[in-house]
Amino acid sequence: MKCLSCKEEYGSRDAGTCRECYEEASETEEELKREIDDLKSKVNFLRFFWGPPLLSPPLFTDVVLVASDDHSTASCQPVPVPAHRAVLASRSPVFKAMLEIKMEESLSGTIKICDVSYDALRAFINYLYTAEACLDVNMACDLLVLAEKYQVKHLKTYCEKFLISNLSWENSIPIYAFAHQHNAKSLVDAALSLIMDNMEKLRKREEYAELVEKEPRMVVELYEAYLSKQVNTAANKGSTPKA
Amino acid sequence: MKCLSCKEEYGSRDAGTCRECYEEASETEEELKREIDDLKSKVNFLRFFWGPPLLSPPLFTDVVLVASDDHSTASCQPVPVPAHRAVLASRSPVFKAMLEIKMEESLSGTIKICDVSYDALRAFINYLYTAEACLDVNMACDLLVLAEKYQVKHLKTYCEKFLISNLSWENSIPIYAFAHQHNAKSLVDAALSLIMDNMEKLRKREEYAELVEKEPRMVVELYEAYLSKQVNTAANKGSTPKA
After folding, report:
1. With 0-12 CB in 10 A as exposed, 13-18 as middle and 19+ as buried, what is B24?
2. Which among A14, A32, A44 has CB closest to B19?
3. Quick one: which pathway (chains A, B) (predicted)?
4. Least CA distance to B158: which residue of chain A?
5. Considering Cα of A37, then A39, then A41, then A47, what sign does the dihedral take?
6. Less crowded by CB within 10 Å, the N or C end of chain A?
7. B49-164 against B167-243: fold identical
8. Would you place residue B76 in the very low, low, confident or very high pLDDT band (cuts 50, 70, 90)?
9. Distance, in angstroms, between A3 CA and closest chain B CA?
10. pLDDT at site B46
């Protein structure tokens, strides 16, 4: 027989689907692709343009954000990042509460964002307008912290996914600790799983000693997870682990 | 052989694909579905809440729109629809130009929208915030007109698609005329195609006589398209049409 998709000959042992199912599957694929195109154009429509503030400042802004520990501009005034109250309030319940009631930020039109660099603040605001960010591991960590603080769930998930796909044995211990501190559950699980696959090497790592020193509870949790996994694996094999 | 998808037996005459292609196709489908989920959550994130203005007015608005021929409120003041300059300007180049320069609308903070009902205006503004509208044929026509006037391409396409899927022999002539007036190319083509499939009934329709009276050029275009189609069909059959 000749495969309708790859056009290669195959025997009945390598048979996949009947013709009807093949045709249905092709239609489904076309439909899904059309849906993707529709959604992409919707995303483009709903995005706000939010260019580099200095080159083409956004129109009709009514608030500015200021990074309060911007080392790069420590000697001069921090660069304010212009934005719209409506956008901030629509994306973050924390900004909404801050701007709705007559708090200092609302009255002065200036929101100070602590412990963040100018670049991270700009990337954060840009994400609120466009649902896009250009990430590396450091930036993903910075944005995850901001996303948690200002309750921007969509951004937090986005950063978690990025960090999960960039996990390695080298960064697994610090990322595990970081994820723990910021309640990033799926990142904790992913880092944990990677560490548990390398338990024999764990104690040789410098970061391990640091973690025992600073966050012994996290280390306990790690060992507890490892033990549970061992018990489960043994139970699945139909035997109990050796004492 | 047993189909891996529907689990039914089939013979080699009804064979579709080999196992490898089936497995690849299943993976592709899963990937497309994941992409759809991601895009849907992006759309939700980028959407603005824009509730019924009277019940829960949007926050931090800086402009109002007024429907200038709202018959339902002819005896009293028209109900203003609050909005954000930034949203209007980001969705429509016409609003952008109007608000950026010091035109009357920009200075007063009130934009009059002519020849539109309050309901259509609200649906229009809601679409600018959410990329969603609850349509029937009349509303789709009203919004298409606004979309053309304010150059909101995404909404125009959305209305065209809706009207195409709601075309019938009964509404094909008025929709053909409407689409023509508003440069809705794909809607013109779809209505034309439906009319050409029913040419023998065309002259009996009341709307036909009206169209000849009011827009004879559109009728000429219809006949020209019909003739081109006949010539093409004949050419594809390898013969010339009878004189």
Report:
1. middle
2. A14
3. Protein modification; protein ubiquitination
4. A38
5. negative
6. C
7. no
8. low
9. 4
10. 94
Instruction: Read off the DSSP letter of residue B14.
Output: G
Do residues A142 and A182 lie in contact, with contact meaning Cβ atoms separated by under 8 Å? Answer: no
In the Cβ-directed half-sphere of A53, how many Cα atoms lie within 13 Å? 19
Four-way CATH pick for A50-136: 3.90.1150.10, 3.40.50.10490, 3.30.710.10, 3.20.20.80? 3.30.710.10
Q: Which of B22, B47, B90 sits opposite A17 (nearest CB)?
A: B22
Instruction: Please say if the pLDDT value at position B68 is more than 90.
Output: no
Place of tokens 């006037």: B149
Mean pLDDT score of chain A, rounded to an integer? 90
What pLDDT, on the 0 to 100 scale, is given for residue A53?
58
d(CA A136, nearest CA chain B) in Å: 20
Q: Is domain B167-243 annotated with CATH 1.25.40.420?
A: yes
Measured distance CA(B72)–CA(A232) in Å, rounded: 69
**Is the predicted pLDDT of residue B65 greater than 60, yes or no?**
yes
Contact B14 A10 (CB under 8 A): no
Residue with tokens 């009996």: B204
For chain A, domain boundaries: 1-46, 50-136, 167-243
Contacts of A47 in chain B (CB under 8 A): 46
- Using a CB-CB cut-off of 8 Å, the residues of chain A touching B84 are 60, 84, 86
The pLDDT tens digits for B189-242 are 999 999 999 999 999 999 999 999 999 999 999 999 999 999 998 988 875 555
Confidence bin at A48 (pLDDT 50/70/90): confident
H runs (alpha helix) in A131-215: 137-149, 153-165, 172-181, 185-196, 199-202, 206-214
Per CB-CB distance under 8 Å, the chain B contacts of A40 are 39
| Interface-testing mutation among A21, A98, A102, with chain B (most B C-beta atoms within 10 A) | A21
The whole-number pLDDT of residue A113 equals 93
Q: pLDDT value at position B59?
A: 84
The domain B49-164 having CATH identifier 3.30.710.10: the answer here is yes
